[in-house]
Amino acid sequence: MTELDHYPARTAMSLFLRMGGWIAIIFTVILLIVSLIGQSNFSTAQRFEAEGRDALAVVEDKYVREGRDSDGNRTYTYYFVLEFVTQRREEMAVSKTVGRAFYDTRDVGDELQIRYLSSEPSTVELEEGDYARGAAVLRWVALGFGIMWLVALWVTGRWTVEALRARRYGAVEMAEVVEVMRTNVRINNKPRFRIVWKDGQGRKGRSLLKKAHEVQGWHGRDPIRIYQGMKRSWWAGDIGDRPKG
Length: 245
Known about the structure:
The structure is a single chain. This protein is of the alpha+beta class and 245 residues long. The protein has a domain at 171-228. 36% of the residues lie in helices and 34% in strands. The strands form 2 sheets. A 5-stranded antiparallel beta sheet has the order 3-2-1-4-5. Strands 8-7-6-9-10 form a 5-stranded antiparallel beta sheet. The longest helix is centred in the N-terminal third of the chain and has 40 residues, at 12-51. It is elongated.
């Protein structure tokens, strides 16, 4: 394949996303969601400490809802319909999600000791401290995602800075394509590829992940333009060419 005379210079944000920065963005969204849910559970746990009331509930009904996750796999959510009377003599019927094991060991008509909020009887705990334990678990989950977010941000940010420096200050030279390599990475169940090259000093480099149509026409011994960085070389087609002038 013939190398283009000039590739438009990519912006820092464009490079960040192409380097995998979208992973850091996904972690950011997940971290925010987990943190919000955890804070909500913590607030509810505090309310249970202040105004939690005990009641004897009856399992009036039980049912399962079927759904599908993002990959198309079936998911199941288990519910109890609990009927109980509050201390104010209010008759309540509340649907409550439960775990599969708990669902299987209880039948319609069974009695359960529960706790509810005096100001909001529709909010119940099957066991005292459920919301507090949930908040504690989510804090650890948020910590884990926070660490992964920092790692993803640091790695992709470092790659982006290195590519920008190579484009601005690095030596530009022609290398020779060695192969078009199919990787083990699959996105949306489609494989991704890399162009592998060798420069004049015999050092190998490789492109960012590419879709199949983006590497069509590339073959071994094709010339390819690269920018030499501090630790590796970068293909002009990935990062864009140095602005002229």
